[in-house]
Amino acid sequence: MNLNDLAILKVSGLSPQAIKWSRTLDVLIVIVAAFLIWAVSHISFLLLGGDWDFFIDWKDRQYWILIIPITTITMAAAFQAIFWNLFRLPVGATASLLLLLVGTWIVRYHSWQGLAFFPISLVVPGTCLMGALVLDAVLVLSRSWLVTGAFGAVLYGLLFYPSNWIYMAGYFQPVQNMGDMTSVADLIGYTFPRAGTPEYIRIIERGTLRTFGDTPTWVSAFFSAFACIFLYYLFWGLGVLACNSRFFPVGDRFKSIYGGKSGAADSEPALKPGVPS
Amino acid sequence: MLAARLMKRLGGPLLGLALSGAAQAHGGLAIDSDMCKLRLGPFNMHFTGYQPEINGNREFCEDIPKLGHTIVVMDAIEPELREMPIEVRIIRDTGDESRLDAVTVVHLPPKTYMSGSVPFEYSFTTPGKFVGLVTAGDQGQYVSRFPFSVGIPPQHYGHYLLFLGVAVLALGLYRYSGTKRRRLMAGRA
Amino acid sequence: MSLRNRWGLRAGLVQLSVLLTLLGSLLPTPAAAHGERATEPYIRTRTVHWYDVTWSSQKINVSDTVTVEGKFHLFTDWPDAATKPELAFLSNASPGAVMTRVESYINGMPAQQSVRQLEIGRDYSFKLVMRGRIPGRWHLHPVLNVHGAGPIVGPGHWVDVAGSAADFKVPVTTMTGEVIDDLQHYGVARVQWWQAGYALLAIAWIVWWIRRPLIVPRWNAIKKGREDLLVTRTDDRVAAGLLVVVLVVVIAGYRYTTQKYEYVVPLQAGSFKTKPLPQESPVVTVELKDATYDVPGRSLRLDVEITNQSGSPLRVGEFSTANLRFINQSLDVALAGVDPSFPKDLVPGSGLRISDDSPVAPGETRKLRLEATDAAWETERLVSFLTNVDSRVGGMLFFFDGGGQRHMAEVSGPIVPVFTQLRLAEKS
Amino acid sequence: MSTHVVSSVPSPQVSSAAAGRSMFNFVPVAIGWGLLLAVYASYRLYQGAFAFEYGLDATSPEFARYWMTLFKVEVPLIFGSGLCIWTYLWFTRDRDVAKIDAETELRRYFSLVAWFMMYTFSFLWIASFFGEGDATWHQTVIRDTALTPSHIVVFYACVPLYIVFGVSSLLYATTRIPAFARGYSVPLIMAVLGPGLILPNLGFNEWGHAFWMTEEIFSHPLHWGFPILGWTGLALGGLFIQVVGRMAELFKEVGGPASDAA
Fold first, then answer.
1. Given CB 3.0 to 4.6 Å as the disulfide criterion, which of A135, B62, B136, C37 pairs with A152?
2. Contact C35 D50 (CB under 8 A)
3. Are residues C138 and C210 in the same domain?
4. C296/C417 same-domain check
5. How far is residue C28's CA from residue D55's CA, in Å, rounded to a whole number?
6. Does pLDDT of D212 surpass 90?
7. Has residue A253 got a pLDDT over 80?
8. What value of ipTM does the predicted structure carry?
9. Which of A19, A21, A114 is facing D48, going by the closest CB pair?
10. How far is Cα A212 from Cα A215, in angstroms, rounded to an integer?
């Protein structure tokens, strides 16, 4: 408990007993929040951009680099908005991406390898975790979602490719298979067959017209960064929207059934939405 | 020459734009609209270096990054060059070219290349600076001297610029958070 | 413990799961089919007809290879609901990567990528070399995935893989000279080390924030307008430091990697084309006059009119559709055509009964009644062509001439369910 | 789960007495998690043993014995037990919820958070563990029925389980806590109804696969109903305001004045 903590507790006006209770509540809320962030981030990413993250032979220069940041910044921005607006806690983005990474690795071992015997090299996931850290850091420094969208979201989109290329480059070395030149990633995809995934189903780069060295990857990265800005603002708004605490107006019958209206005509209005701007 | 090299080095990685070649006084290699060229009097030849085992079909101009098996191909741009005998000699850049044979590394006797392309290969064992001497024409009237380096890792100043950019961004945001903090405190007081 | 055992824990789990789901445990017989029974009958009878399919062996050890080869014919009367085979991919149907693919060819061309513009009405040869990886009893089918029509599954045969999965390795040497000892684990440790590093940084950042009085105290502090307490100056420094660390690590790591792996290629996505096998000039024309399916009798009856345009007498040897082969039992050369190792459940015992089995003389036109009777029509759920949008049936007829030469012809047309014809079946 | 709450609480005592007893009992939550973990682990082991063995061909007798029976057993079992919990919560509701004292209300808020711990835990298992497990099944096996071994576990076991806990949380809140008894809280409804709609969304999903798309691309627009319904989980933000806001006031009321020594 450093000085800052004591100052916060003093300002909060809680008795020593209440402080203990509030610490218990902290632990419970962290658990609930962790489960929920993990679940929502995983199901959201799974069905919006999952395929590119499942297989190594889907990680191309056009769609993988574009789609993964776009589909993950959604929940990162929303959870960031909730925890920043309510408690000034800039951990929403990092928690979302970290828990997504943990969840993904669990499934890669339990299901892809455990159930269907796929080697892990076929199903290594990428991650936008470094982008999420930058998103949170810029939010702390700028304290404004506008600046975070402009700087943080751009870096989020740009950082995905280099931060994952560090450990994915080896999979794109050339190798010969049946006389043709192919990449190690294609060879892995070919060697370990997937009945439900024929080769033509891959939505990957089917031809580039202007290749100047490895710039097509950076073209996709910049486009992704550009799209991340708008998605960041859109889902930050959704996060703020989710912090509304209105009640449906209900008649007296409802209240009497639920025992809410026992005799005292409590006309106390619902809780004021305490959402600071 | 140095200006061209520096300009290319500084500009290249950061902006990724192809720089127009600086004035090449006497046939030095220069990037001209993304083509590495050497001048032979009124004519030009296109210079390309490959190191297939190391980096496949990547093309190099004046600095061949690694040691080992290297293939260089020079393609005649103007058709007249195809009818002239062309002699190629690669020498180690030791400064004195009095006894050429001592420092010669590769020598192609004069010969006309109908296909217009002059390939040669050599396995460079020690890094260092080399000079290419290409003479064309019946009396060898067109001479081109182009220095190039092998195995000397190019200094990428550009990337240090990137790190500098990171520092500037972080510092800027940090100072911005200070002003935001002061405005917040002032608002509250 | 091998992969399967580590997760399967077969002994413990059978009792546990049975206890939990209150099931009696009867001894099951292994399922022979794998999902192809659900494919619509018009796809199984009028798209791809597999023939001359052989499996090199039924018993292999881990790392040994097994080869499935044969030919397939693309039916002219391709159903409308399935898209034409503009884009197809030769694959195999097996549960997960229990067997790995070593080589696959269509007409001798390497088929790692998809094949484009297969011609309807023509034939192609295929070859699929697989390698045993996980011990077990696996059903190996060739499959032609057609874009828009889904997987069209060929005949399947059991392959027993013995040995232990741990011995399986896929060594590869890249063109840049890097020797990979096992493709299954290549690069995984590197990914995990780097991502663990990223995760540690993230955990540190999260713990830095949640170790302080969190929910109600910060809520009250905001209510009282004391936000300045919640994000202190040190937090700004930590955030700026984090930003620098992340960017420097990524830039330095990326630069090092691009230098280490200079020569990289993007994912290969081209498709290939191949000419079909040479087509012999039509030797016999077959016209379907009437097709009926006797529902109680489980018998498909085709009244066809055959014209022998070849120089030598022809006899009907085999009728094949949906991977089922009805052989004319009385024609030895047809019986010889069935490889002894061909899966028994795909060759119905009753075979093909022909109203007039005498050879059709050259130039002669004859009406014939072909009867294919077997329970397989039901068990393979092929009878749902009677209750489907497109109630047409199709199949391949194989004729044998005097010299034992085999000729093929397609037969297809509408089909009508019949319930009264039981007596006729015994008579003729 | 919430038995100790129902006993009628003695008249409000001096807050110092409340100081002794702890506000939150972790044991019921631990038991709940343990049970759920056992159920999920045995489902996974069951899949491990019988999914590829007998689950590949929906027409085979083994499929009927091992998988259809499981389907016919689990759906009534889970929704049945859910019904029991709901009716229990309903009939033991507090008829006079507006009259409870601050300490009981605070204790009930802690119990509500306990219910959320169960609800989010069960939602996590389908969204992450079995959800991507379904992707493994689709990518490796030829789809031949809507009731694949993976769907029988994901949609007809895990989804009903979290619906049980979702509706229980909703019922607990509306029958025990004054703020929620006065009206339906928008975020609470969103957080319970949204994920609950994932089950009917299956209809759209199967319609698409039956008529329209035979090859399995997991991030195909046909599947986008699931993540969008998953986003309703963001209503956690609104719940925070309602729950934390009220608890902050109760902490002051029950906890007594902040002693200056702190």
1. A135
2. no
3. no
4. yes
5. 12
6. no
7. no
8. 0.83
9. A114
10. 6
Q: Report d(CA D118, CA D206) in Å as an integer.
A: 29
C210 and C143 in one domain?
Answer: no
User: Would you say residue C75 lies in a domain?
Assistant: yes
pLDDT digits (tens, 9 = 90+) for C70-98: 999 999 999 888 889 999 999 988 777 88
Task: Kindly report the backbone phi and psi dihedral angles of residue D210, in degrees, each rounded to the nearest multiple of 5, phi listed first.
Answer: -70, -50
Partner-chain contact B173 A143, CB within 8 Å:
no
Query: Is a pLDDT exceeding 90 seen at residue D58?
Result: no
Listing DSSP states for chain A in one string gives: --HHHHHHHHHHT--HHHHHHHHHHHHHHHHHHHHHHHHHHHHHHHHHHHHHHH-GGG--TTTHHHHHHHHHHHHHHHHHHHHHHHH--TTHHHHHHHHHHHHHHHHIIIIIITTT---GGGG-----HHHHHHHHHHHHHH--HHHIIIIIHHHHHHHHHHHHHHHHGGGGSEEEETTEEEEHHHHHHHHS--TT--GGG-------S---TTHHHHHHHHHHHHHHHHHHHHHHHHHHHHT---EE---HHHHHHTT--SSS---PPPPP-----
Q: Concatenated DSSP letters for C276-312? A: PPP-PPP-EEEEEEEEEEETTTTEEEEEEEEEE-SSS
Q: Distance (Å, rounded) from C-alpha D204 to C-alpha D207?
A: 5
The answer to whether the beta carbons of residues C346 and C49 sit under 8 Å apart is no
Question: Residue D131 belongs to what domain range?
Answer: 26-255
All chains having 3 or more CB pairs closer than 8 angstroms to chain B: A, C
Nearest beta carbon to residue C16 from set D45, D63, D69: D45
How many whole angstroms separate alpha carbon D69 and alpha carbon D129? 23
Residue C149 corresponds to which tokens in the numbers above?
């029509």
| C207 shares a domain with C74 | no
Distance CA D198, CA D192 (A): 11
Inspect the interface and report whether the beta carbons of A151 and B169 lie closer than 8 Å: yes
Q: Is A117:A135 a contact under the CB 8 Å cutoff? A: no
Range of the domain at C48: 3-13+31-176
Give me the pLDDT at residue A214, please: 63
From chain C, the residues in CB contact with D141 under 8 A are: 34-35, 95
- Looking up residue D198, the CATH number of its domain turns out to be 1.20.1050.50
Which range of residues forms the domain containing residue A188? 15-204+213-257
User: B2-154 in CATH: which number?
Assistant: 2.60.40.1930
Residue A167, min C-alpha distance to chain B (Å): 19
Q: Which of residues 42-81 of B touch A (CB under 8 A)?
A: 56
Using CA atoms, how far apart are residues A211 and A205, in angstroms rounded to an integer?
A: 12
The model's pLDDT over D140-191, given as tens digits with 9 standing for 90+, comes to: 776 667 788 888 999 999 999 999 999 999 999 999 998 888 888 999 999 9
End-to-end CA distance of chain D: 35
How many domains is chain A partitioned into structurally?
Answer: 1
The model scores a pTM over 0.90:
no
CATH of the domain at A199: 1.20.1450.10
Smallest Cβ–Cβ distance between B176 and the set A142, A212, A215 belongs to A142
Nearest to C226 among A11, A162, A198 (CB): A11
Dist CA D169 CA C144 (whole Å): 50
In a domain, A198, yes or no: yes
- CA C346 to CA C329: how far, in whole Å? 15
* Chain B closest-CA separation from residue C81 CA (Å): 46
If one counts every other C-beta atom within 10 angstroms of the C-beta of residue D76, the result is 11
Length of chain D counted residue by residue: 262
Residue A199 in tokens:
């080769």
Which residues of chain A have a CB within 8 Å of the CB of D190? 242
Contact D59 C23 (CB under 8 A): no
Q: Map out the domains of chain B as residue ranges.
A: 2-154, 156-189
CATH label of the domain that carries residue C191: 1.10.287.710
Q: D66-103 pLDDT, tens per residue?
A: 999 999 999 999 999 999 999 999 999 888 888 888 99
